[in-house]
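User: Please fill in residues for this 311-position structure.
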């Protein structure tokens, strides 16, 4: 395997993983914590350890991961167009400022910087935190917009604007589902480590608020994914005759496994949390679902680096 292909794949994985968790952080704040903001009366959050601040720290780490992926993507992209007879600095400047890919990359860098600073403010106390959350929402929205401008959607021969729009919705829906689940699990783990475990009742409340969000996001992923497959494959037989199609087929199988885990968690997780010992925690099947999500993003990273047959 080519070293730069591997670097590009891992960089895209880091970008997608960081982006999904960053979107999930915002969704956790807007959907989950809006309904159930903070601790139960019997819980001790006086030390300043609140779910909102813990989520902001997770969002900041996710943006750092996305930033590492963004830098790796520049290195991998530059290796493809590298002319050994031209100065590297001039080539990088041309790539970044003279191509649509480079302008999208600059947007990613700006979004990473804004989101990272915003999550740092959101993790603080006082009025700065609310301003930080507002800025984080804007930064994450920009970050979610940029991959479509540098991927297969922007290179489609037809329906470019719908393709870009569908790609953005696909990414945001993935973050609202899997990213929110990752943030929720992360908040529970960090809360226990800080000596302020989230109560069993609060976990069940969060799962109840999360389930409709996950179901709606899964529906959006299905619709936008089918549209992208129709646009990029060209023929049904490409699913097993073309490298892009075979990778897409693998992605579909992994996604079906995640859907199965999600359906199981939707039906069984509240009861298993209610029956769990102390400190309460999410069922092990959630870890399986998140691990499969990491594999899904890796397959997606390979897919986005593979030319579609219809282009």
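Assistant: Residues filled in for all 311 positions:
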């Amino acid at each position: 395997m080519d070293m730069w292909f591997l670097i590009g794949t891992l960089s895209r994985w880091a970008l997608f993983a960081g982006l999904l968790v960053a979107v999930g952080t915002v969704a956790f704040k807007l959907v989950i914590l809006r309904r159930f903001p903070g601790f139960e009366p019997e819980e001790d959050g006086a030390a300043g350890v609140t779910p909102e601040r813990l989520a902001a720290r997770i969002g900041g780490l996710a943006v750092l991961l996305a930033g590492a992926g963004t830098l790796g993507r520049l290195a991998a992209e530059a290796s493809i167009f590298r002319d050994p007879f031209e100065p590297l600095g001039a080539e990088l400047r041309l790539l970044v400022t003279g191509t649509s890919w480079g302008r999208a990359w600059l947007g990613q860098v700006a979004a990473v910087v804004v989101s990272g600073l915003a999550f740092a403010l959101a993790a603080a106390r006082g009025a700065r935190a609310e301003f930080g959350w507002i800025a984080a929402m804007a930064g994450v929205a920009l970050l979610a917009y940029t991959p479509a401008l540098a991927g297969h959607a922007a290179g489609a021969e037809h329906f470019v604007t719908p393709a870009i729009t569908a790609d953005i919705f696909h990414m945001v829906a993935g973050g609202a589902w899997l990213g929110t689940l990752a943030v929720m699990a992360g908040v529970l783990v960090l809360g226990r480590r800080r000596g302020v475990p989230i109560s069993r009742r609060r976990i069940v409340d969060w799962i109840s608020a999360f389930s409709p969000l996950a179901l709606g996001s899964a529906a959006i992923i299905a619709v936008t994914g089918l549209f992208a497959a129709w646009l990029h494959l060209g023929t049904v037989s490409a699913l097993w005759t073309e490298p892009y199609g075979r990778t897409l087929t693998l992605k579909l199988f992994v996604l079906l496994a995640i859907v199965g885990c999600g359906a199981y968690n939707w039906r069984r997780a509240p009861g298993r949390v209610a029956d769990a010992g102390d400190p309460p925690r999410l069922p092990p099947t959630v870890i399986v679902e998140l691990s499969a999500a990491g594999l899904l993003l890796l397959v997606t990273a390979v897919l986005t680096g593979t030319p579609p047959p219809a282009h």
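For context: The CA atoms of residues 106 and 151 lie 14 Å apart.
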